[in-house]
Structures are given as C-alpha cells and as structure tokens.
Amino acid sequence: MAPQRNVVKIAVQMRDAIPQLIQLDQAKPLATVLKEVCDEWSLTHSERYALQFADGHRRYITESNRTEIKNGSILCLSTAPDLEAEQLLGGLQSGSREGRREALRRLVLLASDMTFAREAISRNGLQKLGTIIEDGDDLGEVLALGLKAFLELMEHGVVSWETLSIPFVRKVVSYVNMNLMDASVQPLALRLLESVTLSSPALGQLVKSEVPLDRLLVHLQVMNQQLQTKAMALLTALLQGASPAERKHMLDYLWQRNLRQFIYKNIIHSAAPLGDEMAHHLYVLQALTLGLLEPRMRTPLDPYSQEQREQLQALRQAAFESEGESPGAGLSTDRRRSLCAREFRKLGFSNSNPAQDLERVPPGLLALDNMLYFARHAPSAYSRFVLENSSREDKHECPFARSCIQLTVLLCELLHVGEPCSETAQDFSPMFFGQDKSFHELFCVGIQLLNKTWKEMRATQEDFDKVIQVVREQLARTLALKPTSLELFRTKVNALTYGEVLRLRQTERLHQEGTLAPPILELREKLKPELMGLIRQQRLLRLCEGTLFRKISSRRRQDKLWFCCLSPNHKVLQYGDMEEGTSLPAPESLPEQLPVADIKALLTGKDCPHVREKGSGKQNKDLYELAFSVSYDCGQEEVSYLNFIAPSKREFHLWTDGLSALLGSPMGSEQTRLDLEQLVTMETKLRLLELENVPIPERPPPIPPPPTNFNFCYDCSIAEP
Length: 721
Hints:
By secondary structure, the protein is α+β, with helices and mostly antiparallel strands. The protein has helices at about 30-40, 80-90, 95-110, 115-120, 125-135, 140-155, 165-175, 185-200, 200-210, 215-220, 225-240, 245-255, 260-270, 275-290, 295-300, 305-320, 335-345, 365-375, 380-390, 400-415, 440-455, 465-480, 485-495, 500-510, 520-545, 610, 620-625, 650-660, 670-685; strands spanning about 5-15, 20-25, 50-55, 75-80, 545-550, 560-565, 570-580, 590-595, 600-605, 625-635, 640-645. It has a four-stranded mixed sheet. The longest helix has 28 residues, at about 520-545.
C-alpha cells in the first residue's frame, strides 16, 4: 500500500454520469489513473481523454502539475488536449458563422492553459487565427474572439512575436485606425500592437510608422477606460522604443496637441477611479518626459561656447546694472573683467570663472537652464534673492548659484531623472501633468524655499549642507503627499517650515528612542508580549480579508489578477484567478486551497523562485522588495511554491507577518516594529497619565527595614464576641 501522504481523496465527474470518489495515488503514472477512471465508466480508448480541474480555468492535469491536486479536489473527465485542439481548429474552418463563433469561444477559454496551447500551436492554430484576423469578414464578436485567442496563445512565449508577418501587423493596425469599429475589438488590437512593439524593434518601427499619434489621441479622448488604458500602453511602448531624438519630437508634438491637459482633466481627475495599469503608464510617461532632461544634466558647460558665455552674462546682467555696462563708462578691459568677476562672486559662484562651477555633472547645463528660467520667469523674485544676499555683511548670505546647482542635483535625485523606468511602479505625480515646464517650475518654488529656510535657520556658509538636507526633507515630504497642482505644492511646502521639520524629526525620534528611565523600560518590556499578540491578531484578520495580487508573466505584463485569503478558522489559504473590475469573491467560492499544515517555509526577496528566474538587473529591484513565496509539501518529497507579488510594501509586510504567525515564526517586518513601537508608546503614556509632572526615579526606592515587633498584626484565631 502506498504511503498515506502520497494518496489524496478526490472526486471525478463526467457529464451524464455518476461522479466517482477515488483515492488518487500520486505515485501512479497519470495514464494508469486515467485508464482506471475510464474503466469505471466503461469507456474505451483512455488515451482520448484527459483530466481537468473542474473549477477555475479548467486546466489540464499533467505529470508536472498533478501535485496541485489536494484532498477534496474535484476533477472532470474531458477530451484529451490534442483531440480538443484538433476539433476546435477544425471548427474555425466551419462554413457556419455560429459554428466558428462557438469554436472561438471555447478556444478562448482553453487558450490560457499551457498544455492546450502547445497542442493548438503545433497544429497551426496561430496561422488559422491569423487568417480570421487578416480576412476581417466579421468585424464584431468573431474578430474580437479571434484576437483574444491569438493573444492568449502568444502570451505563453512558445512563439516569438518577431515571427509575425508584416501584412498581419498592418491588418491589426487598420483595426486601430478605423473610425467605426466594435468597442471590444480596438482594445485587443491595441494590446496586440503593444506586445509587438515591446518585443520586436523591427515590427515596432512598422507600428510607429503606421499608427499616427493623432489616432492614439483620438482613442485617449474616448470615454472608455479600457480603450484609454490600452491606447496609453501602446503610446508609452512606442515612446520607449524610440531613439532619444525621436522621443523628444514625439513628446513635443503630444504636448502641442494638449495631451497633458487632457490627462490632467479627464484621466487623473476622472470620476472613475484610476486603474493600476493606467497609473503605471502615467508613471512611465512622466519618467520618459523627465528623461529628456538627462542630456543637459550630463553635459558640462563648455567655456569656449559663445552661446553659453552669453547666457552667463545675461544671468549676471539681469541681477546687476553694472557701471561697466553703461554707455560712456570708459572702463578698461582689465577693470571690466575684474568687475564681472566680482559680480559673479556676488551671484554665488564659488569661482570668479563660473564655468568651473558648472563643469560638474550632474547637474551640468541643467543647472544653468534652471537659473535662466528663474531669472526670466520670476525676475522680481530673482533680483530680490540675489540683491538681498549679495549686500549682506554678516556672513549669513545665501549663495544663489551654488544653491541652484545643488538644488538641481537634489531635484534630479528626488524625481529619478535619467534612471530607467521601473516595470511595475505606479508612483507618478499628478502635479507633473498639471503644469507646463513642471521641472523648471518646481525648481522656482524650490529655490525660493531654500532662501526662506536659510533665513529661518540663520545659516552661514558652513551650514550649507545642513540647509540642503532640510530642503531635501521638505521637498520629499511634500512630494509624498502627491499634491494635484503646483500651487497646492507651493502652499504645503511653505507651510513645512524649519521649525515644523524639527518638530517632525523630534516626534519621529521619540517613537524610535529607547533611552528612557529604567522603570519605564521595564514597563514597556512587560507590555510587549500582550501587544505583540494584538498585532498577530490584526495580521491574521487582514489575511482573512484577503488581497488582490497581480501576476507577472515573462514580459512582466500586469493584466491578470488573483485573489488570496485565509479561511476564518486559520487552517486553509484559499485562492483563485479574477477578472479586473469584478467584485471580490466570497472565500468559499475560490477554487484553490492550500492547507496551512502543508506549508513548510516562507521565502522573501531574492530567495523566491519566481524572482530568481528574472535575473538581477536594476529593474528587478522593485520585484525583490515585494516578492514572497510559501513552499509546501506536495508528496513524494517534492516541494511546490505559491508565489506572490505584493501590490505595496505595506501589504508585503502584513502578509509576511501573517504567514510567519501561522508558521509559529517571529514577525520581524519593519511594519511590525513600527506598530509595536506605536502601541507600546501609546499604552505607556496611558499608564503614566496620572504620573504627569511627577519625577520618576532612576532606581526604585529602598525597602524600609522590618519593624522591631509585629504586635500590630491581627490574630485571626481569636473569635469575635
């Protein structure tokens, strides 16, 4: 008899037949199990049949995935994948339109299964679907189903996108460019072209030449969120595949066509909530636009460039009305050169020759661009800044040029200028789309903030780095609030004074400090076990509520969702796939289950199998920080994994803590540390409320000596009269 751990009790059902309750021996070959099931129903030719999961995507059972069968699983007996593929592909050539439609519907349902996909592809399924797409006899449901089935088969990566023919791609482009087209077709056509653009540079150039930017703008202006999202996806794919010069030309054209204003008003401020995929594409668009600043940031000032010398002189002349520049001054060349050098020093350059200050990269010429923008677009603020500080004699002057150079570096770091786009990030700033020249405008706000903070700190030249650190904190804290406009950003950042920064620092430090009186430390230690139990309870409740996760495929597409939660009795993880936009399912309706007792270990970061396969590039860093897996025993000493990519860092901490609690391991996340510190601090303050303003000694008071006699004690043996 096989060991009990290799046997699972399952049900197998078939249409118009009484279900079988069997004990599946995982050590048996699958063909043997299938023959036994067929024999029970008196079915011959067992090779014509296959087992599928009865719920979810009805995936075929193979030797590689049979370990996913658990106690209580329900399987169904169906046609073998090779025969099913042959039958459905034959149905595509049916003379009946309804027959083709039904075959396509069934094909879409099965195409997500890898086993079926391989069989369909090996029987020229892609070519037959391509014929339906290229013929375009039916521009409605049949075409939409054909495109969807084609995409599902291609997503498995069995066939490269580069093998697609030019006529096929042009036909799909024609569906995107048509004015009157079924609403379900164009999002699928856009999605297909996005995949082509990201995977094949040659075909990407074809798409770029065939799909006008104006056409994508038309799709973006349609009040259909799915169509907008896929149009934005193709737009960012085209921008990413373009050369720097082409990208600049494309973005300039898009801004001229008021794309920024449309995004700000009709997408960011739309009544419908912004989807995760659209948020990612807006992040990419913002990153690519800011990336146009990188060449200027990487280029040092050329002291032999006549244009750049004139820009420096214009900057000086805008601040000072030099007597050497006035008519009839009659100053010698040496005198004029000396006067210019002195004025450049007043302007805040460290050297009399400003070219030496701007040779540093970054920020290179970008710092000069920012200074000129500030001088031309805020001339009164520029003159006030320079003259106010150049005339001071108390060593508290704020150097304008040096501040501009360092502030430009700071903004480039905060906004990640020149860094590659993350493949999963959604951290875009709404303010960026609410303002033309947003980087330069942000600089104008930042340089005035720096001057204000300098005065609040009463700083000297020796305090320059300290001021920059405070300004960095002010800008970072305000950007994290995601203000929707530049004016709102200006208001919030100016409200964050130096005194407020100190107060926030002190508050955060008090939360982190452990240097308290010993009696309070002892009290805190006594409170921790109870409060840690409270945190554990909260983490498990969060797991019971469940979370919606995204699947990351081989090309990191994020268009597939799955939901996972913990059962109320904390004994089973329940999970299953979901469609975007649908409400969260009830736990009992989820098709997959993983008993907590089968979980062996929790893995995070680079130890996760689904992250190890992605390599170690910079663009995978965000995945490392959000990835975790649980390993579980699937029989025959084999280990399987359930892999997660958390939607946020907070969800990552909550889930890893909850799973650690289930496994009896300590909850060691940063979020647990912060929560415990906050709860301990609050509980300690509540316990000490009555001792306010009462000094707490470092040591407990000494115990007094015993009395000389104990005659005051009551004798309990004496009865009451």
